[in-house]
Protein backbone atom coordinates (compact mmCIF):
# COMPACT_ATOMS: atom_id res chain seq x y z
CA UNK A 1 0.00 0.00 0.00
CA UNK A 2 1.15 3.54 -0.75
CA UNK A 3 -0.30 7.00 -0.15
CA UNK A 4 -2.28 8.58 -2.98
CA UNK A 5 -0.97 11.88 -4.38
CA UNK A 6 -3.17 14.77 -3.23
CA UNK A 7 -3.61 18.55 -3.60
CA UNK A 8 -5.37 20.78 -1.08
CA UNK A 9 -6.70 24.32 -0.72
CA UNK A 10 -8.32 26.42 2.00
CA UNK A 11 -11.62 28.34 1.99
CA UNK A 12 -13.47 30.33 4.67
CA UNK A 13 -15.76 27.45 5.74
CA UNK A 14 -14.07 24.35 4.27
CA UNK A 15 -10.79 22.74 3.28
CA UNK A 16 -10.68 20.78 0.02
CA UNK A 17 -8.42 17.77 -0.58
CA UNK A 18 -8.29 16.14 -4.01
CA UNK A 19 -6.76 12.67 -4.21
CA UNK A 20 -5.38 12.18 -7.71
CA UNK A 21 -6.34 8.55 -8.34
CA UNK A 22 -7.63 7.44 -11.74
CA UNK A 23 -10.29 4.77 -12.10
CA UNK A 24 -10.68 4.42 -8.34
CA UNK A 25 -12.84 1.76 -6.77
CA UNK A 26 -13.54 0.58 -3.24
CA UNK A 27 -13.22 4.20 -2.05
CA UNK A 28 -13.44 4.42 1.73
CA UNK A 29 -13.25 7.69 3.64
CA UNK A 30 -13.64 8.06 7.37
CA UNK A 31 -13.96 11.60 8.71
CA UNK A 32 -13.16 12.25 12.38
CA UNK A 33 -12.96 15.51 14.33
CA UNK A 34 -9.20 15.94 13.97
CA UNK A 35 -8.21 13.45 11.25
CA UNK A 36 -9.45 11.49 8.28
CA UNK A 37 -8.57 8.26 6.52
CA UNK A 38 -8.70 7.71 2.77
CA UNK A 39 -8.25 4.42 0.98
CA UNK A 40 -9.01 3.05 -2.47
CA UNK A 41 -7.84 0.78 -5.25
CA UNK A 42 -6.89 2.53 -8.49
CA UNK A 43 -5.81 1.96 -12.07
CA UNK A 44 -5.73 -1.12 -14.19
CA UNK A 45 -3.06 -2.68 -11.97
CA UNK A 46 -5.28 -2.36 -8.85
CA UNK A 47 -2.81 -0.28 -6.86
CA UNK A 48 -3.88 0.05 -3.22
CA UNK A 49 -3.71 3.51 -1.62
CA UNK A 50 -4.09 4.61 1.98
CA UNK A 51 -3.68 8.09 3.50
CA UNK A 52 -4.15 8.83 7.20
CA UNK A 53 -4.19 12.58 7.80
CA UNK A 54 -3.91 14.27 11.19
CA UNK A 55 -5.52 17.64 10.46
CA UNK A 56 -4.27 21.13 11.33
CA UNK A 57 -7.69 22.08 12.74
CA UNK A 58 -10.92 20.36 13.64
CA UNK A 59 -13.68 19.51 11.16
CA UNK A 60 -17.37 18.75 11.37
CA UNK A 61 -17.26 15.07 10.42
CA UNK A 62 -21.00 14.87 9.76
CA UNK A 63 -20.95 17.81 7.31
CA UNK A 64 -17.78 16.70 5.48
CA UNK A 65 -18.33 14.98 2.13
CA UNK A 66 -16.52 13.44 -0.83
CA UNK A 67 -17.17 13.00 -4.54
CA UNK A 68 -15.54 10.44 -6.82
CA UNK A 69 -14.81 11.03 -10.52
CA UNK A 70 -12.88 8.89 -13.01
CA UNK A 71 -9.76 10.97 -12.37
CA UNK A 72 -9.86 11.81 -8.66
CA UNK A 73 -11.69 11.82 -5.34
CA UNK A 74 -12.46 15.29 -3.99
CA UNK A 75 -13.06 15.67 -0.24
CA UNK A 76 -14.75 18.71 1.25
CA UNK A 77 -13.84 18.98 4.92
CA UNK A 78 -16.22 21.35 6.71
CA UNK A 79 -14.29 23.40 9.26
CA UNK A 80 -15.48 23.28 12.86
CA UNK A 81 -14.28 26.88 13.24
CA UNK A 82 -15.48 28.84 10.19
CA UNK A 83 -13.34 31.82 9.22
CA UNK A 84 -10.09 30.48 10.66
CA UNK A 85 -7.46 29.97 7.96
CA UNK A 86 -5.36 26.83 7.81
CA UNK A 87 -1.72 27.54 6.90
CA UNK A 88 -1.30 23.82 6.18
CA UNK A 89 -3.50 20.73 5.97
CA UNK A 90 -1.64 18.58 8.45
CA UNK A 91 -1.17 18.97 12.18
CA UNK A 92 2.53 18.19 11.82
CA UNK A 93 4.72 20.80 10.12
CA UNK A 94 6.75 18.10 8.34
CA UNK A 95 6.35 18.09 4.55
CA UNK A 96 4.41 15.13 3.16
CA UNK A 97 5.82 13.90 -0.16
CA UNK A 98 2.36 12.95 -1.40
CA UNK A 99 0.72 16.32 -0.59
CA UNK A 100 0.94 19.67 -2.38
CA UNK A 101 -0.97 22.97 -2.45
CA UNK A 102 -3.53 23.29 -5.25
CA UNK A 103 -2.45 26.73 -6.50
CA UNK A 104 -5.07 26.67 -9.29
CA UNK A 105 -7.81 26.83 -6.65
CA UNK A 106 -5.94 28.63 -3.87
CA UNK A 107 -7.46 31.96 -2.87
CA UNK A 108 -6.21 34.27 -0.15
CA UNK A 109 -9.70 34.78 1.22
CA UNK A 110 -8.67 36.46 4.49
CA UNK A 111 -8.20 39.85 2.85
CA UNK A 112 -10.41 39.24 -0.18
CA UNK A 113 -12.59 42.27 -0.87
CA UNK A 114 -14.98 40.24 -3.08
CA UNK A 115 -16.20 38.16 -0.16
CA UNK A 116 -16.30 41.22 2.09
CA UNK A 117 -18.35 43.02 -0.56
CA UNK A 118 -20.80 40.14 -0.88
CA UNK A 119 -21.27 40.14 2.89
CA UNK A 120 -21.79 43.90 2.71
CA UNK A 121 -24.32 43.45 -0.14
CA UNK A 122 -26.22 40.86 1.91
CA UNK A 123 -26.28 43.27 4.84
CA UNK A 124 -27.52 46.08 2.56
CA UNK A 125 -30.29 43.89 1.17
CA UNK A 126 -31.36 42.99 4.70
CA UNK A 127 -31.48 46.65 5.68
CA UNK A 128 -33.48 47.57 2.56
CA UNK A 129 -35.97 44.75 3.14
CA UNK A 130 -36.65 46.11 6.63
CA UNK A 131 -38.24 49.17 5.04
CA UNK A 132 -36.98 52.70 5.36
CA UNK A 133 -40.29 54.64 5.38
CA UNK A 134 -40.52 54.84 9.14
CA UNK A 135 -36.95 56.05 9.70
CA UNK A 136 -36.75 59.51 11.29
CA UNK A 137 -35.80 62.48 9.12
CA UNK A 138 -32.16 63.25 9.90
CA UNK A 139 -31.59 67.00 10.06
CA UNK A 140 -33.91 67.76 7.15
CA UNK A 141 -32.00 65.52 4.71
CA UNK A 142 -34.84 65.80 2.17
CA UNK A 143 -34.57 69.58 1.92
CA UNK A 144 -32.61 71.05 -0.97
CA UNK A 145 -29.40 72.70 0.03
CA UNK A 146 -27.73 75.53 -1.84
CA UNK A 147 -24.03 74.97 -1.61
CA UNK A 148 -20.96 76.39 -3.28
CA UNK A 149 -20.02 73.02 -4.75
CA UNK A 150 -23.34 72.41 -6.51
CA UNK A 151 -23.01 70.65 -9.88
CA UNK A 152 -25.36 73.04 -11.68
CA UNK A 153 -23.33 76.10 -10.80
CA UNK A 154 -21.53 77.80 -13.72
CA UNK A 155 -17.76 77.59 -13.49
CA UNK A 156 -15.94 80.93 -13.86
CA UNK A 157 -13.59 81.36 -16.79
CA UNK A 158 -9.99 81.02 -15.70
CA UNK A 159 -8.48 83.23 -18.47
Task: Please characterize this protein's 3D structure.
This protein is mainly beta and 159 residues long. Residues 115-120 and 132-136 have low confidence and may be disordered. It is elongated. The strands form two sheets. The chain has a five-stranded mixed β-sheet, with no helix packed on it. Helix content is 11%, strand content 30%. The chain starts with 5 loop residues before the first strand and ends in a 30-residue tail after the last helix. It has one helix and eight strands.
Strand content: 25-35%
Number of helices: 1
Number of strands: 8
Rg from Cα = 26 Å
Quaternary structure annotation = single chain
How far do the termini sit from each other?
86 Å
Arithmetic mean pLDDT: 81
H/E element string?
A: EEEEEEEEH
Largest sheet: 5 strands, mixed
Low-confidence runs: 115-120, 132-136
Helicity, as a percent range: 10-25%
The shape is elongated
The strand order across the widest sheet is 6-7-2-1-8
Secondary-structure content class? mainly beta
Amino acid sequence: MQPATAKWYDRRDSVFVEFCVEDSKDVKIKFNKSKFDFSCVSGTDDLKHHNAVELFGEIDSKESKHRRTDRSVLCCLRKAEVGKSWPRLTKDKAKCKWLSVDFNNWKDWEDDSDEDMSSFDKFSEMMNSMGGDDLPDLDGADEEHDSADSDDEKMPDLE
